[in-house]
Amino acid sequence: MGGVRKTAVVTGASSGIGAATARRLAAEGFNVVLAARRRERLDALVEQIGKEVPGAGRLAAVTLDVTSQDSVDALAAGLPACHVLVNNAGGAIGMEPVAEADPEDWRVMYDTNVLGLLRVTKALLPKLIDSGDGHVVNITSLAGHVPYEGGAGYNAAKHAAVAVNEVMRLELVDKPVRVTEIAPGMVHTEEFSLVRFRGDAERAAKVYEGVPEPLVAEDVADCVAWAVTRPSHVNIDRIDVQPRVQATPYKIHRV
Ligand SMILES: NC(=O)c1ccc[n+]([C@@H]2O[C@H](COP(=O)([O-])OP(=O)(O)OC[C@H]3O[C@@H](n4cnc5c(N)ncnc54)[C@H](OP(=O)(O)O)[C@@H]3O)[C@@H](O)[C@H]2O)c1
């Protein structure tokens, strides 16, 4: 069985959507490379997934900073093969209106959500093509399609990621590589809002206050798993996914 397993690389696999995706792809029979900056969390997840998923393939933890070309090059150099790349590393910083926004926050968001996607995709593309059945899954956001007040920096970065995703599908049309965008609405993950509000747990908790059932990381992992397990001639272009109680970023039913 080991020889026929495909390899999936998941960036930002140390928490939230990335961790859930790594677990789910292991359960779907992939060898999984979990990549992020916090190595100790990745090592713990590798151990946990190995125990939780009977018959899991190879699981590997790789330290990766998508804002560092050297780090991305090291990931690519250590990878014998790659069939699926899930560009998930990213996130938001701050929610200030444009009038008060800090360009440094915007720079970090662009570096992570857009240039990170470019660096990792570019580095792994030869392996994705060589696999004969490659697939790039980009985790963008509803914020990449619908602007909202206070969201400009994150909106801009995710809109850019959406554009890159679309261009990739055009450019790779004659290659054996599928390109899928997954654009989630509100997902209650442990760290997304905590990072956005710079560790302010109270403010982070308010984001999900009264929301009966936001999406959870496993819901997005489910979308990834579905897209990558379609027959290889089927390209799922984009999945927009929101909790039932959300209609758009600023229209959320709270109880
Ligand atoms: N939660 C939501 O509501 C939501 C909605 C739509 C889209 N998204 C998108 O979904 C993705 C995952 O979000 P999440 O909710 O799971 O957030 P999260 O729990 O904060 O996870 C973000 C992941 O990205 C990694 N990361 C951040 N900067 C990195 C860097 N420079 N290099 C490598 N890895 C980096 C983090 O790991 P390390 O810190 O260990 O590096 C972490 O594993 C993001 O792209 C986010 O924008 C989230």
From TrEMBL:
The lineage of its organism: Bacteria, Bacillati, Actinomycetota, Actinomycetes, Streptosporangiales. Belongs to the short-chain dehydrogenases/reductases (SDR) family. GO terms for molecular function: oxidoreductase activity, acting on the CH-OH group of donors, NAD or NADP as acceptor. This is Short-chain dehydrogenase/reductase SDR. Keywords: Oxidoreductase.
